[in-house]
Model the fold of this input.
Amino acid sequence: MPAVPVCARYEVDVRRPSAARIYDYYLGGVHNFAVDRAFAKQAVRIEPELPLVSRANRAFLRRAVRHCYDAGVRQFLDLGSGIPTCGSVHENAPGARVVYVDQDQTTVAFGRAILRGEPDARVVQADFRCPGRLLNHPEMTLDLDQPFAVLMIDVLRYVDEANCPAQLVAAYREALPPKGFLAISHTGPVDSFVDGLEIAGDGPVRLLHGGYAVVARRS
Done:
């Protein structure tokens, strides 16, 4: 395993695994530590398909970004993004403005180190479960009056019923301007999350090894 790069200069508790670094490991990235790899391997013994599910979600993200980009979208908001490596948004949308959102301080530090030299991409430390606060965040660099795409890739599993996933998605859906997009992957059906939007292609699709995904646009 290659050494962890410049991000390692940040103060990181290497005794505790990180969900973002575990995900990075499943994707084949290098921004993870021994504790993350050990935890990931233990989890695979219980759920052998975890790496495949992670890669299926990342493959969907790439397809969704390219679909939106080909439709003319040049702004992306990636919620619960984790570490921006291994086929992340800015790698698939050259010249687009990208805001990655994560609330974990260490993940944000890793992301900011990785994105040095990427003037159009940035990481905002915020809780995506508070859409009003996020969309008005002082570091929000997207022009929300112009078309942008909201990416919610396998993040609704972190939203409990008390935070009402349907209302959360609706808040982002309603914030979209005309020609804006919403892309979602989730462990359950996603049809209701895109009510009132035009669904791209043939509708929601099943992801490899379970889950559903959809890309939809506001007219």
In short: Residues 1-8 have pLDDT under 50 and may be disordered. The radius of gyration is 17 Å.
